[in-house]
Design goal:
Strand content: 15-25%
Distance between the termini: 32 Å
Shape: elongated
Number of strands: 14
Organism: Hymenobacter sedentarius
Order of helices and strands: HHEEHEEEEHHHHHHHEEHEHEHHEEEE
Largest sheet: 4 strands, mixed
Pfam family, one: Peptidase_M56
Number of helices: 14
Protein name: Peptidase M56 domain-containing protein
InterPro entries: Beta-lactam_resp_regulator (IPR052173), Peptidase_M56 (IPR008756)
Keywords: Membrane, Transmembrane, Transmembrane helix
């Protein structure tokens, strides 16, 4: 799983966790400022927490130019897989491309809306109404505010209605509600396939209206007259889609919230329940999504080879690693038991590397004769080659600064469910990565002790 996909999964899961907590526990409370904080925290936390060094995070990986690739066909058989990895369709990349395309469309729509507002500003002119600086518009238009500026046609509203409109929009402008709106729009665009993003955006916009209505009424406006003004405005021409909130579909809920009794102070305890619960669930689910969580807890690292033979003669690790991969004809691997049987000494695992130029030399033939008695050389099957190719492609993509040592079937795995093991050097450490029968990663890379 790529780090980008993992980030998107965690961010979208966080939105899915926070949304039910808000709609189930907080939506009907009249603590509008606290609700604003909760909704903003939801969007910011969902975007940021997958990037933080929490236990739920997947350590960033990277890929490696392979020195050579080894296939252990069983505890007693091995073979070399060489040559370039066959190209395959990267469905993960295709999915990310489609996801990015959807986000780009919505971000483009947001840009068009911003340009539309800019055009309105160009057609407006500065004015002062009831002591409030505004941008006056011509024609019939729904009043709105953007950033710290109020836009309206003062000739369009009777005196009482104009005062109500100004006080309402003053709250939006003074409390920087445009920041909330833009953040919600961007979150919806980047998480466009997540229904929670759309619901949270709508909830955030509604809560801003509840907050502005409440603040406007606190200035001494008559409640019934104010609500009647809203009803009249909702029947008019809609304003810019990015900022206009005087619409009939939301008016019912706004009137309900204005007429609702203030929530008891004790209800603030719901925030102490909703916020930690949502954060805990988001981090917990994120931990379950991390590849590290899929790695077996009792998994232990298998040792690498202790002895190297190059072209039939005893050699060392440095000489083998200095070889050009294209010059290698095959690699044969013996575990400790096989090495004892073949060489009569407890020397640890043995890697036998043969180059194309010397594969028929006397030294190679003599060593093969000795080794074939306990571990005959066998070529890899097409299925093994395909799995190794997929595993190698994953390593080449995710560990570019490391050096691959071995990759092949895990001899400790169940024969009915074959598994592959890759061993490589990365950042001065010997690491292992396991793969399933199709060459897909199982868990994340684990660190094993370096052996000489």
């Amino acid at each position: 799983m790529s780090s980008t996909v993992l980030y998107l999964l965690k961010a979208n899961v966080a939105l899915l966790v926070f949304a039910p907590a808000y709609f189930g526990l907080l939506r009907r409370l009249t603590f509008f400022s606290l609700n604003r904080f909760y909704l903003l925290f939801t969007l910011l936390f969902s975007a940021a927490y997958p990037l933080l060094p929490l236990p739920a995070l997947f350590p960033a990986g990277a890929a490696l130019p392979a020195a050579f690739v080894l296939v252990e066909t069983s505890a007693a058989h091995s073979a070399m897989v060489a040559g370039p990895v066959a190209p395959a369709v990267d469905w993960g990349a295709v999915g990310l491309l489609l996801y990015a395309g959807g986000a780009a469309v919505l971000l483009g729509r947001l840009l068009v809306q911003l340009l539309s507002l800019w055009q309105l500003r160009r057609t407006s002119h500065p004015s002062v109404v009831l002591g409030q600086p505004i941008r006056a518009l011509a024609g019939v238009v729904s009043p709105f505010s953007f950033w710290r500026t109020i836009y309206l046609n003062p000739r369009q509203h009777p005196g009482a209605e104009l005062a109500a409109v100004l006080r309402h929009e003053q709250v939006h402008a003074r409390q920087w509600h445009t920041l909330d709106v833009l953040l919600a729009q961007v979150a919806q665009a980047l998480a466009w396939c997540n229904p929670a993003a759309w619901l949270l955006r709508r909830a955030l916009l509604d809560n801003l209206e509840y907050l502005a209505d409440h603040a406007a009424l606190q200035t001494g406006l008559d409640r019934q007259a104010y609500q009647y003004s809203l009803l009249c405005l909702s029947q008019g021409v809609a304003g810019p889609s990015l900022v206009s909130h005087f619409t009939f579909p939301t008016l019912k809920n706004r009137v309900i919230m204005m007429n609702s009794p203030a929530s008891a102070l004790g209800q603030t305890g719901r925030y102490l329940l909703a916020l930690p619960l949502a954060v805990g669930l988001a981090v917990g689910v994120g931990a379950a999504l991390s590849p590290a969580a899929a790695a077996p807890a009792t998994q232990t690292a298998a040792p690498g080879p202790a002895v190297y033979y190059l072209d039939g003669k005893l050699s060392d690790k440095a000489a083998v690693y200095a070889l050009d991969q294209k010059s290698i004809a095959y690699i044969h691997m013996l575990d400790e038991k096989q090495a004892r049987q073949a060489f009569g000494a407890a020397s640890g695992a043995v890697a036998i590397v043969v180059t194309t130029a010397n594969q028929n030399s006397a030294a190679v033939l003599a060593l093969n004769e000795k080794v074939d008695k306990v571990a005959p050389f066998m070529p890899a099957t097409p299925e093994q080659k395909a799995a190794i190719a997929a595993a190698q492609a994953y390593l080449l993509k995710n560990y570019p600064n490391a050096k691959l040592q071995f990759i092949g079937p895990d001899s400790k795995a169940d024969a009915a469910a074959p598994r592959y093991r890759a061993q490589f050097q990365d950042g001065g450490q010997t690491k292992q990565q396991y793969f399933d029968a199709q060459g897909q990663p199982v868990g994340t890379a684990s660190t094993s002790p370096n052996r000489r």
